[in-house]
Amino acid sequence: MDHKHLSVALNDGHVIPVLGFGTALHSKVPKSKTVEVIKLAINAGFRHFDCAYCYRNEEEVGLAIRSKIEDGTVKREDIFYTSKLWPTFSRPELVQPALKMSLKKLQLDYIDLYLIHFPTPVQPGEDLLPKDEHGKLLCDTVDLCDTWEAMEKCKELGLAKSIGVSNFNRRQLEMILNKPGLKYKPVCNQVESHPYLNQSKLLDFCKSKDIVLVAYSALGTTRDKIWVDQSSPVLLEDPVLCALAKKHQRSPALIALRYQLQRGFVVLANSSSEKRIKENTQVFEFQLTSEDMKILDGLNRNFRYNAANYFAGHPNHPFSDEY
């Protein structure tokens, strides 16, 4: 897999590989196995790794990357690494320390992309989701434009080459884009997207603003009980997807990934299985027809696996808007 030819330009002049590896592994995957999984992904040809403070595995991901640099498989500049600012660090004075904490865990000098993980500031502290004695989420009153200015500073200091957002709706994106004195606009918005939630309106809006959409949960989801309702439909068992997989003699996962690439998304694949990790890199070996694409468009039902119910009641909850 020659990743050099499989990247797209970001609006700040950097490039991002169009296929990434999501490191939010299922909670059943032990941390000790994370190092092995990331090494397998690098060996399979993945060069783009998507991580976050809240995944609690940046030490392991960093260890795997550094070991593949040390053994000569890759150079640091071959790797595109993304991390994310959790809402407990939304206050401007906490942004830089949060990024430096990730860099320390990774033992890297810079990251390639830093994202505001959710537009939902909550009270600072150790808890990812701080609650009061009645179990109510402790929101924080932070202007996200101030958070964004602190993100811009991280870029200027070279701690992050590019900056962007995640889980922002159109209105929240426009708030950043229309900010007086904006120095750098977000290079991307990372959102849940798959055939059941194709995000076509958000995609059109982001394309018009030269913002790349990055798709997470592109294969549905790992169905981790911590985040996902167990009664939700299994995307990769969808009969339409399976019929197209049969037609192209590919897996349903590859059809789902290819669908997003052809629409102009950067897409993240997530697996801890060596066989599936290798298989997912075959997404560049075939093409879907315009008829196939129309059929897949028809699967959209605006269904979210990650409805972010843990931020229920937050005034900034991004999914209450249409897109």
Automatic annotation (TrEMBL):
Substrate binds at residue 117. The record marks 84 as: Lowers pKa of active site Tyr. Keywords: NADP, Oxidoreductase. The keyword NADP applies. SUPFAM superfamilies: NAD(P)-linked oxidoreductase. InterPro entries: AKR, AKR1C, Aldo/ket_reductase_CS, NAD(P)_OxRdtase_dom_sf, NADP_OxRdtase_dom. Pfam families: Aldo_ket_red. The active site is at 55 (proton donor). One of its GO terms (molecular function) is oxidoreductase activity. Residues 19-300 form the NADP-dependent oxidoreductase domain. Belongs to the aldo/keto reductase family. This is Aldo-keto reductase family 1 member C4.
